[in-house]
Design goal:
Helices cover 21% and strands 17% of the residues. The protein is built from six helices and eleven strands. Strand 6 and strand 7 form a beta hairpin. The protein starts with 17 loop residues before the first helix and ends in an 11-residue tail after the last helix.
Length: 254
């Protein structure tokens, strides 16, 4: 109670409504929150310093209108059927962020200041308020900054393999497939970001093997460290069961 607000004013159409819904949410969030991030249920923000919360991590980006969190894309971890337990406990293998053939392994999602963004796309702000002004408000206008603050991100970065922004401060674990069973269900649902008759409205093929290349337990270690600083044993036990209990990854083919 008090943590979730449901919006009943927006009517979701069968397909293709996703970006319009994001833009609708921008207007609702303006003046209410400094930063807004729209995430899916299979996306988890990971902060490098496990003693820092998201607000603290975002403090150094105050001069930017948006910040890109790079994806680390996780695969099946050998699971055919959906396992019992938490996502981060069961799926611990991911794709290489540099060498993967699938460009999604080099994608990102953005945190934006809602009052500075006019229109959202699936992964980032598509148009900023300052871009419609006679003079740009600052040199960072329209810049979706990488977390190392050395790049202004764009869709072009999805297809690059060299010169990738460093994974510093924070990033996003994207559990894109989960088990083979989950992946088939996801394929059957189709994409909310495009209409049903679009050529890319359906996901295709089996879960990519390259999604299971690197064992990465950074988020698990971070959760353990954060739980270790809590003083209420009952709360630690509850959160451990919720966040860390699971079957773990299965043996992967050689």
């Amino acid at each position: 109670r008090g943590l979730v607000r449901l919006f009943h004013e927006y009517e979701c159409h069968a397909r293709g409504f996703q970006n319009d819904a994001y833009t609708f949410l921008l207007k609702q969030a303006a003046g209410v929150t400094t930063w807004l991030m729209i995430v899916d249920i299979d996306e988890f923000i990971t902060i490098e310093d496990d003693d820092t919360d998201i607000a603290g991590a975002m403090a150094e980006y105050a001069t930017f209108d948006a910040v890109a969190l790079m994806w680390r894309v996780y695969g099946t971890s050998g699971h055919v059927a959906r396992p019992q337990g938490s996502v981060i406990a069961n799926y611990r293998y991911r794709a290489s962020t540099r060498d993967a053939k699938d460009s999604r392994a080099r994608s990102f999602k953005s945190i934006v200041k809602p009052e500075t963004c006019v229109r959202m796309a699936t992964h980032m702000c598509a148009a900023f308020v300052c871009q419609y002004q006679g003079a740009r408000a600052s040199t960072t206008c329209g810049c979706t900054a990488s977390t190392d603050k050395r790049h202004c991100m764009s869709e072009d970065y999805l297809f690059m393999r060299e010169g990738r922004p460093a994974f510093v401060r924070m990033w996003m674990n994207h559990y894109r497939t989960k088990s083979e069973q989950d992946w088939e269900r996801k394929k059957a649902r189709g994409r909310a970001s495009v209409t049903e008759d679009s050529k890319n409205s359906k996901r295709k093929g089996p879960p990519p093997d390259e999604y299971n290349l690197i064992r990465d337990e950074t988020i698990v270690d971070s959760v353990k460290a954060r739980l270790g600083r809590l003083e209420d044993p009952a709360e630690v036990k509850r959160l451990h069961a919720l966040l860390l209990d699971g079957e773990g990854p299965r043996a992967l083919p050689a």
